[in-house]
Amino acid sequence: MNKQELIDQVVKKTGQSKGSITEALDAVTEAIKTAIAEGDTIQLVGFGSFSRGERAAREGRNPKTGESLQIAAAYTAKFTAGKAFKDAINVKSSKSK
């Protein structure tokens, strides 16, 4: 599902306009990005948590030439699914089997 398909699903469920749902989704994703960039954690009870992880600097290898190179440390975005979310996924997957 891409962003437009997600917006269409929310419009169908809420009856709100496509423009207002797009604006709301953009605001939510921007708030999540800003909070994570600042090192905050966002917890959505029943859904999951977004947080910032760290990847240490390491040595890598260019697959084409085999040459060693240094990969810089970086922050990563992490998502941990909440129990209700995991349960909902497992119910749907067990029904489809």
Automatic annotation (TrEMBL):
Instruction: Name the CDD domains for this protein.
Output: HU
Q: Which SMART domains match?
A: BHL
Keywords in UniProt for this one? DNA condensation, DNA-binding
Q: Name one GO molecular function term.
A: DNA binding
Q: Which PROSITE patterns does this UniProt record tie to the protein? A: HISTONE_LIKE (PS00045)
InterPro entries in the record: Hist_DNA-bd, Histone-like_DNA-bd_CS, IHF-like_DNA-bd_dom_sf
Looking up Pfam families in the UniProt record yields:
Bac_DNA_binding
State the similarity comment: Belongs to the bacterial histone-like protein family.
- In its UniProt entry, what is this protein called? HU family DNA-binding protein
Q: What is the lineage of its organism?
A: Bacteria, Pseudomonadati, Pseudomonadota, Betaproteobacteria, Burkholderiales
